[in-house]
Amino acid sequence: MRITFIAILLGFIIQNGYSQVGFTQEGFASVYAEKFEGRTTASGESYSFRKATCAHLNLPFGTLVKITNLSNNKSVVVRVNDRGPFVPDRIIDISRSAAEKLGITGTTKVKIEVVEGPSQLNVEQPNNIVQTTNQSTKQSVNSSEVKQEIIPENELYELKVNLIQPHGFTIQIGSYKELVNMLRIANDIKISLKKDVRVQVSTLNNEKIYRLFVGSFNTRKEAEIFKEKISKIYPDCFIVELK
Q: How many other C-beta atoms are found inside a 10 Å radius of the C-beta of residue 72?
């Protein structure tokens, strides 16, 4: 049976809706563990617990997000520079300094709101962008502290599409119903892992499903070694035998 694969690289434009100012989401937030200090994030920037940063599955890098702890109404503004969390019941991972401002030590129910999109920001930003308020207090960001950069509002992906015969082993990162989500994660993988990706397109209950794979291995042992290497970044990844 032939399976369609797409290797990321053909001009393709995706409208960016997640980064629009006012976009909100509620769910659980978690805090980066100390072991991640100094490690490279999906954006290529090193993680530092002192910076007001976060990981989100969909929001573009550079987006400013206001996080409100729903248990105490404390708020903080952070910048997206990483991908995650890859756990079903969580929507955001935050740096330790931001967590301290929110009074979070473990997993806590929060509300997030986009306050400024990446089109107005450079990914690099001063560490003192953290600002805390009560929910009744107006939240603002000092624009003089933010570097300005003109970036297109649409996301532009360059793709090279090849239909191939599957064989060997690979690592599945995840399955996605939305093409835009898959493309964003695929782009992040190319940045963080320096690896090409493949996409299996299939249909489930009359819906298109995009399964994202990374790596191509002749033996399961080779796949296991690579999976062990990336499991800290993508803890839900698993080995798939292509037939």
A: 13
Q: Which residues, at least 6 apart from 224, have a Cβ–Cβ distance to it below 8 Å?
A: 239
Model confidence, pTM: 0.48
Tens of pLDDT along 10-65?
Answer: 333 333 445 578 889 999 999 998 888 888 888 888 898 989 999 998 888 888 99
21-25, 125-129, 200-204: range with lowest mean pLDDT = 125-129
Domains of the chain are 17-145 (2.40.40.10), 158-241 (3.30.70.1070)
Q: How far apart are CA 217 and CA 168, in angstroms?
A: 6
